[in-house]
Each structure stands twice: as structure tokens, then as C-alpha cells.
Amino acid sequence: MKKIRLRVAIIIITAFIYLVLIPPQQALSTPIYLPIALLRQHHEISGVLRYHSQTSVRDNTGHAWQIILFQQLQQGVTNPRFHLRLVGFPGVFEFLHPRNLEISTAQGKILTAEDVYTTDNAPATNVGEYLFSDILEKLPTTNELQLRLPVTNSNPLILKIPENIVAEWQLLVSEFK
To answer: Which residue stretches of the chain are H helix?
Structure first.
């Protein structure tokens, strides 16, 4: 029953974004390509079903990034923590660990998410992962975000997260509270 409610809610949110938030003249004159997060389920361990949100977004230099929001399940913890994992193409950019992820809201609020990796335990140089539960509680549900990635690059590397992705993240979190 939860799966059906989750899918219906995603369809409603996506339809709302297309029908209400996009002005009709823009919808008729210009094709719009909104990234859509895909909520997936998988078995973490026997008998435990876990959901995560996964999407691909291009940065301000045109490179694609995989963005995954998922629950970090821990033994004996009843309230799972959410992590945000960012994966770039290998060899293009390298994350600096441990460095916080900077998140900017449309209202100008700056939030920081703590890096879960150190220089010694990162799975690969093109992967960043951040504690995101506290951030999700502070985010507006209808505005886009900008993520400033802590990578080895002289120019700031920015990922714009559209409002429909943020809304889907909020939906995912609300299903597991």
C-alpha cells in the first residue's frame, strides 16, 4: 500500500510542476527538459526493503553527475539517517575530503552538509557523500537548490537541483518518518 501511495504522490507532484508552475506561453513555445528523480527500491538485507532517489544533473560546466539520496540503515537505530551521494565521471573532477557540501536555497540561505569521508576512506576520488537528514528538514519543498561541490578545481562547480527533485526528496523522507 505504501508503494502505491508513493508512486501516486510522485505522479501528482510531477503533473503539478508541469501544469501549474510552468507558464503556458513557455510550455507552448519552448521544450522543457526537467530531470526527474527515480525512486527505486531494493533489499538492503533479508526482509528489509529500502528506497532511494536517483537522478542525473549537469553541472555549470556541462558534466553529468549522478545524485542519490538514500537511507543509511544502522543496527539498533530506529530513525534512519539520509545521505546524499554525488558521483562524477572518473578522472574529470576529484572531491576534496573531508570538506562540507555547501547548499544554497532560492531564498539565499546557505546550509552545509557534513562530509562522511576522510582522505583515507573515500571509495573513489569522484565520489562525495554527505549527511543530509538535518538539511532536508530545513529545505523549502518548492524551490530549486544549488550545490557547491568541494572539488579540485579553480572555478566553483555548481549543481542546480530543480524544485521537482527537492519535492521528491521531501516525499521520500516523509514516507519514512
So the answer is: 2-16, 24-29, 133-138, 163-175
